[in-house]
Amino acid sequence: MPALTNIPMPPSTNHLYASIKTRGRIIRVKSQEYKSWEKEFFAWSVVYRAQIKAVKEWALEQTSRNCTIRLDRYFWFCRSDIVCKDGTPKKLDVTNRIKAIDDAIAKLIGIDDSWYWSGYISKNEKPFASGENKVDLEFRDNGSVP
Known about the structure:
The protein is an alpha/beta fold and 146 residues long. The protein has a single domain, classed as CATH 3.30.1330.70. The protein is built from 4 helices and 7 strands, in the order βββααβααβββ. It has helices at 32-47, 49-64, 79-82, 98-109; strands at 3-8, 17-22, 25-30, 67-77, 116-118, 121-125, 134-144. The strands form 2 sheets. Strands 1, 4, 5, 6 and 7 form a 5-stranded mixed sheet that branches. The chain is globular, with a radius of gyration of 17 Å.
């Protein structure tokens, strides 16, 4: 099963776009936070090109056989980002971070994200205290299109 690891944590969906007024209309544009993450994502893709190549080959084989993809997403956070001092969970909705990851990965490996048929989402505490929050992805065969 191919995987991609150490992907930079994307911004929340709430921070992907900004509304600006231009020529009397309000339009949505990519936010500075989203643009910054895209640059960081591109830098990550250069370093992890061997993993990306393996995933791309696997995904293109899957889609050529009309097979869908199960995409499992593992979000890794420092404990202080996900747990309050009293031990209760912090309000951190990882589902708000899926769109940016799914879109960027689909574009990177050359498929449409409509092939992502199912998946698992997990919010995890990093086993080490330092460093940035990251995302790991595992790609699995989900069977033929129903």
